[in-house]
Design goal:
Chain A is an alpha+beta fold. Chain A is built from 11 helices and 12 strands. Helices cover about 35% and strands about 15% of the residues of chain A. Chain B is mainly alpha-helical. Chain B has helices at about 20-40, 55-70, 70-80, 90-115, 135-160, 165-195, 210-240, 245-270, 285-300, 305-310, 310-335, 350-375. The relative contact order of chain B is 0.18. At the A-B interface, helix 1, helix 3, helix 4, strand 7 and helix 10 of A face helix 1, helix 3, helix 5 and helix 6 of B.
């Protein structure tokens, strides 16, 4: 006669499981991750960019990507946005008469679009098969097509709209900037920074780049200042470089030796905001601009990464499968009491 | 005693060739043709997918909504085996069958959408899996659940082919399979909601909340009952059988109880997060939100009174409304309220719609064939 009692047991089992989940939630929140200490990245300074798109061409070459056309005559590589075949693009902001550079009204400005290499990337958290990974040392967010199942959850998850898929191919891959990690072993760094004629795109350790960015936003607009080009070398490395044939530098990181390419130019009018310093827990690519970042297509993001919240929920519900097994245990216990008579009866009734 | 006197399940019988099955066949053939093009030339050849909307209706409708529609088996099994409500036992097999098809096809549908489907084994490969990924949890749970449901349903097949020994063996472990069959859907139906969390601010505040797992779980349960109302009324009418109203009336009451809890959580969450003003903005999202709310609240008015719950037409309508409400909430979260910025637009192509239609046609056709040839529905004494 246990119907009502068993019903109550079911309610209690379900209730206990739900409570366990609710109580566990705040207990083990996963904090937003920060950049690894040796994180590599880029500093893009929109005030130095002249929009020559040498970086776009170099990126295509370095990644062996085909040209994409948006004009009738198909003469030049003219992608309108990053895509599965274009990992880096310089976009232009225009307003009114476009009188002056880095001016919001009646002006224009440039912005680089490429992977930000987040400290706590949504794409890496989203990827079910670890095809998207973050290097624990360099922090580079890399992609492995041999694992990728093409679900495009990374495309949907990224707040910057960076991973892109090749929809036109039956074997389409995800395409995104990997900071030219395939060139690092030969001593080359990111092609975009390597070719940038004005140092608008600078490669280096994010920590050094952040210090450089802060140095720049503190400059007086119009004042003559020295700006590095190519790869940003930290102070101690510059000292070592004074030694014969820059051995110290090569030993430190294995980058190819380059002469100092820095030059002097008047400082731009910077917004007091290093984009990427704090957004989503920080990114390894940092940006400076004279025009509001949102106007240039960079989203306004909170300091906490969505991945942290998503993984907090995921692990509190399923961490070590404690909750599922607890609920399964309760359900099995109740089901064992309830299922038996039904099967016997259906056996009797059957055929 | 939980042993209620019910007629044993028996095949409905009758012809398999009629206007409904033929239409289903045509839709399935069209789907197959489109899929050939898709696998030869890529997703772009048949879909309107783009990098602003990497997921279209094959995910939002076929998988997210489709699997919620397939929660009847889970909802009814909970009622019968966990809450020991034996009086609903005749509803178990048909509900389970509908779920079986819904999930199996949702699983197949995912494969159509995967751009690199040949790598899918990585989802189960210990060296590749990413337990941080909500998608991983969803995929593993759904795969397991499909297997579990086929085992749950296997007595029907074994019974038909007279394999009584085997059926007995399966029956011995059935309590555990049934328990698994309640836990797994709870896990992945909630996680289908959690899928949106990592998308952050790209999902409109009316649908982006840490309460997503709870909202998706509760709605999946009442949608499960709603689908049973829908399917039971439809089957009875189509096969000219006696309506199952005496069972549906009390079940609808349970459904309304869960619905009420859901509405409190849904509205409470929107208010607590301060997202309510967004519901009064002149936007498509606000309109979608209120459409969804109407579908959730109307059934409370429609069949809130016991007398109205005895009216099969009202039960059917309430079921349809709740299916629609749950579907709208999912569609808004995954597509309408999803915005990556930039000039991206998505509207499904005819080919995408036809594949989705083909999937649902396959479910209907499978349901008809199996109920006519296998012992799923209770034996009917009336002439037909």
């Amino acid at each position: 006669m246990g119907t009502r009692r068993d019903f109550l047991k079911g309610v209690i089992a379900g209730g206990a499981a739900a409570t366990a989940g609710a109580v566990a939630l705040p207990a083990a929140a996963r904090e937003t991750r920060s950049r690894p200490p040796e994180a590599l990245g880029l500093l893009y300074d929109g005030t130095l960019c002249v929009g020559c798109k040498a970086c776009v061409a170099a990126c295509k070459e370095a990644n062996n990507n085909p040209a994409e056309f948006s004009t009738v005559d198909h003469l030049w590589d003219t992608p309108l946005d990053t895509s599965g075949y274009t990992f880096n693009l310089i976009k232009m902001y225009r307003n009114g008469t476009m009188d002056a550079k880095d001016q919001e009204t009646n002006g224009y400005a440039f912005m680089k679009t490429s992977c930000m290499h987040c400290a706590d990337p949504s794409c890496v958290s989203a990827c079910p098969v670890s095809a998207m990974t973050k290097d624990p040392e360099t922090g580079v967010v890399g992609y492995n097509p041999d694992k990728c199942i093409g679900c495009r959850y990374c495309v949907a998850a990224c707040p910057f709209g960076i991973p892109k898929y090749q929809y036109d191919s039956p074997t389409g891959r995800i395409g995104k900037c990997e900071l030219c990690r395939h060139r690092h072993k030969d001593g080359h760094y990111s092609a975009c920074a390597e070719v940038c004629p004005t140092g608008a795109t600078l490669f280096g350790r994010t920590e050094d780049l952040l210090a450089e960015a802060k140095r720049r936003i503190a400059m007086k607009p119009g004042e003559l200042n020295r700006f590095p080009r190519g790869r940003l070398r930290p102070a101690q490395e510059k000292m070592l470089q004074g030694q014969p044939d820059g051995k110290g530098e090569r030993k430190r990181k294995g980058w190819r030796h380059e002469p100092d390419q820095s030059y002097e130019t008047p400082a731009g009018k910077y917004l007091q905001h290093v984009y990427g310093e704090k957004e989503y827990g920080g990114t390894q690519v940092l940006k400076l601009s004279g025009v509001n970042f949102e106007k240039l297509g960079m989203p306004n993001l909170p300091p906490d990464a969505a991945a942290a919240l998503s993984e907090t929920i995921q692990h509190n519900l399923y961490g070590n499968l404690i909750m599922p097994f607890a609920v399964l245990g309760a359900m099995t216990w109740v089901a064992k009491r309830n299922v038996k008579p039904e099967d016997e009866s259906s056996d009797k009734e059957g055929s | 005693m939980a042993n209620h006197q019910h007629a044993a399940p028996a095949p409905v019988g009758g012809s398999l060739v009629n206007i409904v099955t033929l239409s289903c066949g045509v839709l399935i053939a069209l789907m197959a043709a489109i899929l050939v093009v898709r696998f030869l030339f890529g997703l772009g050849a048949v879909t309107a997918l783009n990098d602003g909307y990497p997921w279209g209706i094959w995910i939002a409708v076929d998988v997210v909504i489709g699997s919620a529609f397939a929660c009847g088996g889970f909802s009814v099994a909970m009622l019968v085996y966990i809450f020991n409500k034996g009086e609903y036992h005749p509803l178990v097999r048909p509900a389970l069958l509908a779920s079986l098809f819904g999930y199996t096809l949702a699983g197949a549908g995912v494969m159509f959408d995967l751009g690199r489907w040949w790598n899918v084994w990585n989802m189960f490969w210990p060296g590749s899996i990413n337990p941080n990924s909500v998608m991983f949890e969803v995929a593993v749970c759904i795969s397991l659940y499909i297997v579990v449901m086929w085992i749950e349903f296997s007595p029907v097949v074994l019974e038909q082919f007279g394999k009584r020994d085997m059926k007995k063996k399966v029956s011995k472990a059935m309590f555990f399979i049934i328990a698994l069959g309640t836990v797994l859907p709870m896990m992945h139906q909630s996680s289908l909601g959690t899928l949106l969390v990592v998308m952050g601010g790209q999902v409109h505040p009316l649908w982006q909340t840490p309460a997503l797992p709870l909202l998706y779980l509760l709605s999946a349960i009442f949608m499960g009952y709603a689908v049973v109302l829908f399917e039971s009324c439809l089957t009875s009418t189509a096969y000219r059988r006696k309506l199952e109203t005496p069972m549906l009336t009390p079940m609808a009451k349970i459904m309304l109880g869960i619905l009420a809890v859901f509405i409190v959580v849904r509205l409470g969450d929107v208010i607590v997060r301060g997202a309510l003003p967004k519901a009064f903005a002149p936007s498509v999202e606000a309109l979608m939100f209120w459409l969804e709310m109407v579908c959730f609240i109307a059934p409370l008015i429609l069949i809130g009174a016991e007398a109205n719950r005895r009216n099969p037409a009202k039960l059917f309508l309430a079921g349809v409304l709740l299916m629609l409400g749950g579907a709208l909430m999912r569609l808004s979260g995954f597509l309408i309220g999803y915005e990556t910025g930039g000039d991206f637009n998505y509207f499904p192509t005819l080919a995408e719609v036809l594949v989705t239609a083909g999937m649902f046609a396959a479910e209907v056709l499978g349901y008809i064939i199996i109920t006519r040839r296998f012992p799923v529905l209770p034996r009917e004494e009336a002439i037909h």
